[in-house]
Amino acid sequence: MSDMTTPPTTRPAPRLRGRTKAALVLFVLAALLPVFAWATNDPYLVVIGTRILAYAIAAMALDLILGYGAMVSFGHAAYLGFGAYAVAVLSRHGVTDITLHLLAGISLSAVFALITGWISLRTRGIYFIMITLAFGQMAYFFFVSLSSYGGDDGVTLDARSTVLGQPWLENDQVLYYTALALLIGLFTLCARIVTSRFGRVLTGTRENTTRIEALGFAPFRYQLTAFVISACMTSVAGVMLANQAEFISPAFMSWHVSGELIVMVVLGGIGNLTGAIGGAFLALMLEELLNIFTEHWKLFFGVILVLVVLYSPDGISGLLRKLKLGGEK
Length: 329
Known about the structure:
cell membrane; branched-chain amino acid transmembrane transporter activity; ABC transporter permease protein; ABC_transp_permease
């Protein structure tokens, strides 16, 4: 007889192995990008690659709560901004170490997510979406009001973050591999979370909150914890974006960016960490490619997104699974 107090395992082992293999392929291809850029004498590939890796972290973090906890946060870009402004504010005051930038961004995001999540998670459905949007816009307009840091115009960094006092991140390849290492590390963390008892309870709240309560668990605590973890990971992406662009503005926190993160998750496949990473890769690569041919690239991107939603609701990973090429929901 099964233990009725243990939440059901929702992801069979073969799919877990498939997810890991797919992620490994993505990471190997990502690791080879600087080599390809060197061979083709196109250093811009490394620059755009760093941006893609940062957004992949943010998309994966969002999928942790959207795909596994059914929490559609439309204000998640605020945490990108917290990470980015941690770099700007601390650097302005002489604190340039990336470890301290990461700790500051994570701490600020954790506090903001704890407070706003505690309020937001008392709502459901469209109300949750709108209240997270409202909190996100509050953060956005707060940083718009900071005239000492450029206000709406933003602020340019004098230099990138340092590592142990050394300006190693000034090298684009070093910055790229740092972002890749963070993505791999956070993917490993997320994979462990979703396969743990905590992850099974979180997934159970997505499926049937009443049943989880009947089993003796408190869904609110699990959802709030996941919300805070997701916010902290997103702030890491913000730190990397700030260093990649060497420019920070409140635009990082706009609701448009939150929408873009949701699009990446949908494109790759909701409830699939590897799919969220692949969705970020695909979305930003399509943006770059389509932008070469037309300034109206968003129109064609929209058509592609509609086709994916209509014919492969599980995103690109679902399509690959149907074609027996891997991918897992």
